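Record 1 of the preview.
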Amino acid sequence: MTRTNKSLRAKIVHINVEHDASGAYFATSPELKGLLVAKMTIEDVYCNIARAITELYAASGVDVVVSPVEDDSEYEHPWVAVPAAVAKMALTNA
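->
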């Protein structure tokens, strides 16, 4: 498979959220090295996850559309990063 084909695939990004003794919440991802969102409220963490994922992909030259995936896990929160070109094609063909 060529690099181009791989870059046109949606990727699941699992987010782990932890709460520390200082009261801050931290979001990291085992799949997306370098992702770190730290805020004082869990709501602020969730509001900033999509932007952090988008910015990390953009640093690699890939534009993505990011959305949370419905899941009932208390510890791992999956998000999906869809290449913007793929999302645009899907919307055009809908």
